Amino acid sequence: MQLARTRVTRASMVPVGGVALAIIRVAARLSAAIRSDTRPKGELPTTIAKDSERNRRVLAKLRRLKQPYEVVSGLENGHVETIFAAFFRSQPDVKYHRDLILCTTDGGCVALDWPVEASNENEKWAWDDLPDDAPVVVLFPGLTGGSGDSYVKHMVLSCRKYGMRAVVFNSRATADSPVTTPQFYSASFTGDAKDVMLHVHSKYPNALLFAAGWSLGANILVRYLGEVGNDTPLRAAISLCNPFDLTLSDRNFQKGFNRIYDYKLGRTLSRMFKKHMHLFDGMEGQGFKPHIASNSYTIRDFDEAVTRVSFGFDSVDEYYEWSGSC
User: Fold this and answer.
1) How far is the C-alpha of 319 from the C-alpha of 309, rounded, in Å?
2) DSSP secondary structure string, 51-109?
3) pLDDT digit string (tens) for 259-294?
4) From CA 243, how far away is CA 241, in angstroms rounded?
């Protein structure tokens, strides 16, 4: 084995003072970002609802909405809270049964994961003892998210504690779900959601049906509700951390610390795409840019290369402008 020798010269060395100054500058910027994004303690939630007898009865039962939001000490900043959860949140062991359904709109396939058994911190749960009429909650994870993410698994366990059956709607390519056509998913495409709701309702026709979505999943859920209106089998739904305005969300991803999230999500989309890149062979003439998608470093890069083309938008900005849920 031959070892390469590197000659260190004064010109190639970084002065210690320069390194220290760089560290101080980075620390100062992070400190400023944390202070500027710190949420106030003891702030009461803002509730916006139509003034009706039914809404007044519902709000009267939601006592937590009348209590101030108490931030966990040390996690007042949203970035700190996000990073802390990523490294220290517990990971429940949840085993699923996968239910594949064919979406007739384009012949694509969607994976639904039904929990079978789970354990977390010396507690164990099973689902086979739930009656057929137990309420069912359809979960819509965020961008690139799926049944294996900790926040989803914790919600699965929370549903079980209250006697409800959860099912995770994994968008195409997420959670290692199969992709059978050259189409993934988007913030505004609700075709799969419509098929999923009908499938779950037919599987448990006597159960109350609910839904909850996070981030992009929340955007899809709200758009679905707006499109189907009273024809939905859902009795209630909740939208969590919804971006609502995707144009504004895109701008925010390009600022400050948010660039790190943008990079992480962009790389995850890229890895997901590479597994199914063969489906896009020879489609460059239709506007797709497979090689850009497989090397994307931002969400915008991926959406420009694949998403906006799949769903017929002339530009990524048009896609963002049209695909929000506000």
Assistant:
1) 9
2) --HHHHHHHHH-GGGGS-B-PPTT--BHHHHHHHHHHHS---EEEEEEEEEEETTTTEE
3) 999 999 999 999 999 999 999 999 988 999 999 999
4) 6
pLDDT for residue 6: 36
DSSP 177-244: ----SS----SS--HHHHHHHHHHHHHSTTS-EEEEEEHHHHHHHHHHHHHHGGG-S-SEEEEES---
* Average pLDDT of span 147-164: 96
Q: What is the pLDDT of residues 25-34, one digit of tens each?
A: 655 555 555 5
Give the pLDDT of residue 284. 86
Whether residue 161 contacts residue 189, with contact meaning beta carbons closer than 8 Å, is answered with no
Helix (H) or strand (E) holding 316: helix 316-323
Give yes or no for a contact between 291 and 283, defined as CB atoms under 8 angstroms apart: no
* 270, two tokens: 């890229």
**φ and ψ at residue 5, rounded to 5 degrees:** -100, 135
Q: Which residues of 249-265 are buried (b: 16+ CB within 10 A; e: fewer)?
A: bbeebeeebeeeebeeb
Residues 142, 249: Cα–Cα separation, whole Å: 14
Q: Which residues of 166-201 are buried (b: 16+ CB within 10 A; e: fewer)?
A: bbbbbbbbbbebebeebbbbbbbbbbbbbbbbebbb
Quote the pTM value. Answer: 0.85
Residue of 16, 236, 220, 197 whose CA lies nearest to 103: 197
**pLDDT tens, position by position, 190-241:** 999 999 999 999 999 999 999 999 999 999 999 999 999 999 999 999 999 9
Alpha carbon separation from 167 to 71, 83, 157, 227, 237 (Å, rounded)? 30, 27, 11, 22, 14
pLDDT digits (tens, 9 = 90+) for 35-69: 555 556 677 888 888 899 999 998 899 888 888 87
Tokens 């026709």 label which residue? 205
CA distance 236 to 99: 23
